[in-house]
Known about the structure:
The chain is 83% helix and 0% strand. The chain has 16 helices and no strands.
Amino acid sequence: MAGPTTALMLMQILVAIADGVFVGRLGTEALAGMALVIPFVTLMFNIANGGMGGGVASSMARALGGGRLDDARAIVVHALILATAFAASFTLLDWTCAPWLFRLLGGNGVALERALSFSHVLFTGAIAIWVSAFLSALLRGSGDTITPARYGLLASFIYMPLSGILTLGIVDWPGFGVAGSAIASLCVFAGTTFFQARAICDGRLGFIPTLAGLRLQWPIFREILWVGVLGSVTTLVASLNAVLMIGLVGRFGLAALAGYGIGARLEYMVAPVAFGIGSGLTTLVGVAAGAKAWQRAVRVAWTGGLIAFGAIGLIGWLVVLFPEVWSRLFTSDNQVTEASISYIKHVAPFYCLFGLGISLNFASQGAGRMTAPMVASFARMITATVAGWVVVEKTNFGLDGLFGAIALGIIVYGCLIAGSLLVTPWREKAVTADERQRNPP
């Protein structure tokens, strides 16, 4: 089940590399500007697809696994209402807070202009991103991972040349700069929204959605939001951690910031692989949880987690062997390259634990048990931030020491999530009054 989504996520790595190459050709200021905005873009994408999207997929999987077809029909409409609300929130936050946030992180001059030109375009069209993400989550939750993956692969193939043209221009036309990448993103998300909506209306969920007799129900909103909000908190904490690290790295200058952006881009690229594996876990664990088969749910979670450990670890270990090759894909500046290589050597060896933690986070969404992932996310942020601050303010370890603090945070994150499931495997919880009413014996 994870295969189609994982294939799509591998394609997203190529897309991210292509984006990095396009932006790199615009200069160091463009790279630094994107380093400012990428954590916030990643935040929205991870909440839409992973946090809240995981809540949608988990709710659909548990409803179908428990035979609650009426609830499954209602989840479709409730999910779209939530998608609209979240999209509007991100658009508002961008136009009111982005300039202040980017300046707070050290952005100024041309780098700040580049960051704002990208963020204002992308977040203004956030509705296309959120609706596409939730439609994909509904399909994955029903067990159909092929449909969203197929449309996503097609969109990726279209996006790469479109982004290159809109970013760098063609012939005598100079293009839109970094904003071109945002325009290309919105174009392909609008397309995937249309085709996924058509597939759902044709019955790809296993039923035909209808508004007949539908009424909005707080228990359904709550079921989606309980898993989705806790999952989003973990995503928010991860993005806050990235923002705090940017603030610390920025003290070493523009070249260090750009180099960190190139190195950290690798983490953003391997995360989709964990998402591909994790999205399958959300559905499989959710169906097992809906059927009260908790031993099977735990077994599935460990299987997927160990696969992610090996697959993402392999990517990290390979890049560690050739860090300069990776860095030179995006820049020819020696100082930027040096900072990027330092990040890769210190952090990438531990991506195996990052992959394990992310995949078990998605499995926890399927089980509806999000406490451990949330605690682990906070622990990662606190560890990396405190250790990083000590390195910057109290030692002479420089960037190497700061990147070591980032690696320590990843180690804590992966070990806490895995350790929690190992020590206290999931078991059946007491049934609430709402659940008894919606699931009579």
